[in-house]
Design goal:
234 residues; alpha+beta; GMP Synthetase, Chain A, domain 3; 3 domains; five-stranded antiparallel sheet; 7 helices; 28% helix
Length: 234
């Protein structure tokens, strides 16, 4: 058995388990952890708890330490740089006339890489753009293509129900959604009423679908209470 804590790096993202490394941690603590990409910063969402080695992704990475005031300042500094990087990237995209739309920019905590998330309906040759950005920011650059559902999750918004979009509020993964689900619930098959902000079928169509064991989904935090805590303020 291993003593671990569940760490979340962003709101409505997956929880990753890390060795507690003999530290005294509680839910809500901001921590610095060891990741495959370098140091990362997140907050304790679950634990401490005991888990079997077989149930954990190996090799199990460790929590390095609790986040210091300097770490928090660095995180805030990265967020400011992300805004600056977004403005520069959009300018370069326009200069090169690339058929892509920038959605988000993320600096890794240790600034070893900056990730530009974008959407595009066609294949984009952004080699010149990457060279330009790498020279500008003096770090590794990754261009990451995402889909319209991911775009909506990142940008957020208000759904037809008048509440915050489920994908940006609490959904971790996108479950398959089909028109059949609407039929089973006797919902009018009006595309305008079945489509979410992203233009795809609304994720909440899965909430009342009865599974093989006779239970309906419990993914809706609006009906069953919050499914996760809020990120600690920096």
């Amino acid at each position: 058995m291993a003593t671990v804590v569940g760490i979340r790096f962003k709101k409505a993202c997956k929880i990753y388990y890390f060795d507690i490394n003999n530290l005294e941690l509680k839910t809500g603590d901001m921590v610095i952890v060891e990741t495959e990409k370098g140091m990362g910063i997140g907050w304790v969402e679950r634990g401490p708890l005991e888990k079997s080695e077989a149930s954990l992704v190996q090799p199990l990475k460790k929590v390095i330490r609790k986040a210091t005031e300097s770490d928090r300042e660095r995180l805030e500094f990265n967020r400011e740089r992300e805004q600056e990087a977004a403005a520069i990237c959009k300018k370069e995209i326009a200069k090169y006339g690339l058929p892509m739309k920038l959605i988000a920019v993320e600096y890794l905590f240790d600034s070893s890489k900056v990730i530009f998330s974008y959407i595009s309906e066609s294949r984009v040759d952004f080699r010149d753009l990457v060279k330009c950005l790498a020279n500008e920011f003096h770090t590794r650059v990754e261009m990451r293509q995402i889909g319209v559902r991911d775009e909506t999750k990142i940008l957020g918004g208000i759904g037809p129900c008048g509440r915050m979009l489920c994908c940006s509020a609490h959904l971790i993964d996108f479950e398959p959604v089909s028109v059949k689900m609407a039929k089973e619930q006797n919902i009018s098959l009006n595309p305008a009423k079945l489509s979410g902000v992203c233009g795809r079928l609304m994720c909440c169509l899965t909430y009342e679908v009865v599974s093989d064991n006779g239970d309906s989904s419990s993914n809706c935090c609006h009906s069953h209470g919050p499914q996760q805590s809020q990120p600690p303020s920096v």
